[in-house]
Amino acid sequence: MSRPSHSLGALFSHQRKNWSISLAKKGTMASHIVGYPRMGPRRELKFALESFWDGKSSAEDLQKVAADLRASIWKQMTDAGIKYIPSNTFSYYDQVLDATAMLGAVPPRYKWTGGEIRFDTYFSMARGNASVPAMEMTKWFDTNYHFIVSELGPDVNFTYASHKAVNEYKEAKALGVDTVPVLVGPVSYLVLSKPAKGVDKSFCLLSLLPKVLAVYKEVVADLKAAGASWIQFDEPILVLDLDSQKLQAFSTAYAELESALSGLNVLIETYFADVPAETYQTITALNCVTAFGFDFVRGTKTLDLIKGGFPSGKYLFAGVVDGRNIWANNLAASLETLNSLEGIVGKDKLVVSTSCSLLHTAVDLVNETKLDNEIKSWLAFAAQKIVEVNALAKALSGQKDEAFYSSNATAQASRKSSPRVTNEAVQKAASALKGSDHRRATNVSPRLDAQQKKLNLPILPTTTIGSFPQTVELRRVRREYKANKISEDEYVNAIKEEIRKVVELQEQLDIDVLAHGEPERNDMVEYFGEQLSGFAFTVNGWVQSYGSRCVKPPIIYGDVSRPKPMTVFWSSTAQSMTKRPMKGMLTGPVTILNWSFVRNDQPRSETTYQIALAIKDEVEDLEKAGITVIQIDEAALREGLPLRMSEQANYLDWAVHSFRITNVGVQDTTQIHTHMCYSNFNDIIHSIIDMDADVITIENSRSDEKLLSVFREGVKYGAGIGPGVYDIHSPRIPPTEEIADRINKMLAVLERNILWVNPDCGLKTRKYTEVNPALTNMVAATKLIRKQLASGK
C-alpha cells in the first residue's frame, strides 16, 4: 500500500534534520541485518492497527505510527554501524501478503477494481470482512509466525499494484539511509501459494512464473530508478528438499531477470536450515547473483559445502547471529567460524549477518526491568543482536572491542556454570523415560465407549477450544493484581465471577462440554511457565505471531519441574458451577517448548521430556479432583517439524512420545482431548493418530477444509475428531447454513459417532458481540444436522 503521495515527506521530515547521516563518515563494517521486528519496542504498531480497525483512528494516524517506527529502526542500525540495512521488511500485516499486493493477485471475492491497493482491500484479504472470509493463514516454515497464503490460478491477472517497496526505499533515502530493498523471491512466492478455489489442485503454480516475473521486472526498474544499488530476494524454500522442477525454476527465474537486474548487486537470502548440496550447486551458478546469504546457526552443514567451493568474486553473507532465539551470541565461536569462511571467500567478500530476520525474536533488552542481572547477562534481543553483528564485523576488520568480547566471554561462562540451570533429580527422571513407549493400557475404541457411558453426550457433541474473550476489564484485574493494587481475595472473586458468566453463557447456548474460559491466563504458554521452575519472563519480550497478534514467549533457561498444582483450583471451581462436563485446560509439552525461547545447551527433546513429566503430574491431579475431560493442547506440534525430511521421523518420535507421557496414567473413563492450530497436518496424520488422544480438535475452516482431504483419501481415524467449523481469527460471523454445510462435508468422510463440532481455535482475541452469535449459529447448525440424522435424511 502506498501512502498518499502528498504525505510521503511530511510524515518524517521532523526527523530528517536530527539524524541524516553519511554512512561513509560512520565507518560502517561489512555487516547486514536480514530483517527486523515491526511491532515496535512497546507494540506501537499493534495498538495503532487495532485502533484503526476499530474505527478510532484514521489511515493517516496508522501511517504516521508506521513511518516513525521505520525511521527509528533505520536510525538504530545506522548508529550501530550496519552497512547493509534492509527496507521493505516492515509490514502492516505480513510480508507474503505484501508480495500478493505488489503483484495485484487479489482474489475476485474482494471486488478490487484495480489501481494502487489500499487498506480496505489489503486488510479484507488478511482478516475477512462482513461479507467474505479471509485468505488462508498458515505457519511460516517451522516458526510461530503466520503468513497469508496466496490463492492463484491460470486466470490471475498479475499487475504492479503496490509500490510499497520503492516508497519505503525512497523514504529511507530521504532520511539519509541507503537501504537494501527486500522482496519475497518469485520462486518462493509461487511455491508457498496454493491453487485458488475452483482451480484444479494439480495446477502447476510455477507455470505462472513468466507472468510474475513481468511484475518483478517493473519493481526492479522502479528501485533502480530510485537509486538502489543492492536488492535482496528472500528465497527461504531453498532450504527444503526441492525436486528438479523447482530447482530448474530458480535457474529459469533468475536467468529471465538477469537483464533487468543488470547494474544491481543481487543478494539471494536463505534461512532456517542447511541448503542441500544440489541446491547449493544450482544457486551458486546463477550469473546475475552477487551474494548469497546462509544460516550458519541452524545450517551448520552449509560450512562444509562452502569449504568444497564458493564462486570466485561473489559475496558471502554469513548468518552467524541467531535471529530466532534470545541468547547472547558466543562471539568467540562465531569469530572462529567467520575466520574459517574468510580463508575461503576472502576478507573483502565476507559480510557478517543474522541467521534470518530478527522478526522472530524480542525487540530490545533495555525494556526489561524485572529480569535479574545474571539471566539478563545471558540474553540478546533484536537491538542487541545488531550490536553483536557489528562487533563481529569490526573484529574481522582488525578493530576488535576487547572489553565487549571479555564481557561476552564472562556471561557465557556464567551461564555454563550457574547452579540455577541444573537439577539432577529432573535430569535423572527425564532420562529414565527413554525405556518405555508410554501408551495407555486400553485401545481408543473401548475407552470412548467407557467415556460415553460416563459423560452421556449427544451425537455431534459441541464444545469450544478453551479461551473466551479477554475483555478490557479482565485484563485490568490481572494487571492490578500483578501490581499489588488489589488483594488476592479481590482477584480470586473477580476471576470466579468471570468464570461464572462464561459457564452460564455456554449453558444458555446449550454447549455440551464446557470450558472455563481461561480468564486467569495471560497466554497459554506463559501462564504455565510462570508456575514451572527453569523459566524466566519478560515484561516487553513481545514477538509477532500474525497481524497485530503478539506473544510473549517465556525463556527456558534451566531444568523444568512443577513445584505445585497449576490449574486444579480453577478447573474444580468451574466444574462446581455446572452439571455438564468441564474441561481441564492444559498446554502440552511440545507446544510449551515450541512457543518458548528454549535453552540451546541441551537437545530440545531433553527439555520436552522434562516438561512432559510436569504436565503428567498436573493431569493426574486434575483427574483426582474429579475432572473427567482434560484437554492437553499441542497447537504447535506440527510447527516444530524439521524442514528437511531426513530429520522429521526423529522429531515426531520424541514429540509424540512426550504427549503420551502426559496422560499415560489416567483411567479409561477420563477423556483426553488435544487441539492443533493452523498448519498443514496431512503429512503428519499418522503421527497425530499415534498420539492416541481420545478426541482431537483441529483447524479446518480457514484452510478450505484441506484437512478433510486426508480422510477422503482413505486414512481411517477411530478417535473423536472436531475439525473447526468456523474461523475465529476473522471478525466475520458465519451463518447457520454455512456451518451446517461444513458439518455435512465432514459427515461425508467421518463417522457420525466420532465427530465433534467446535470453532477452529480459542476465542480470546474476539469480542463477545462476535462470539455470542457465532456460537449460537454453531449450536443451531448442529441441532439441525442432528434432526436430519434422526429422521434418516
The portion of residues forming beta strands comes to: 5-15%
Mean pLDDT reading: 92
Radius of gyration: 26 Å
Share of helical residues: 40-55%
Oligomer: single chain
Q: Structural class of the helix and strand makeup?
A: alpha/beta
**DSSP E strands, number:** 21
Strand line-up of the largest beta sheet: 1-5-7-8-9-10-11
Unreliable stretches, pLDDT < 50, 5 or more residues?
Answer: 1-27
Catalytic activity: 5-methyltetrahydropteroyltri-L-glutamate + L-homocysteine = tetrahydropteroyltri-L-glutamate + L-methionine
Binding site for L-methionine: 465-467, 518, 633
Active site: 729
Organism: Flemingia macrophylla
What does this structure look like?
L-methionine binds at residues 465-467, 518, 633. Catalyzes the transfer of a methyl group from 5-methyltetrahydrofolate to homocysteine resulting in methionine formation. This is 5-methyltetrahydropteroyltriglutamate--homocysteine S-methyltransferase. It catalyses: 5-methyltetrahydropteroyltri-L-glutamate + L-homocysteine = tetrahydropteroyltri-L-glutamate + L-methionine. The protein has 793 residues and is α/β, with parallel strands linked by helices. It is built from 30 helices and 21 strands. The protein has a seven-stranded parallel sheet with strand order 1-5-7-8-9-10-11. A hairpin with a 6-residue loop joins strand 2 (137-139) and strand 3. The two termini are 50 Å apart. The relative contact order is 0.09. Mean pLDDT is 92; it is low at 1-27.
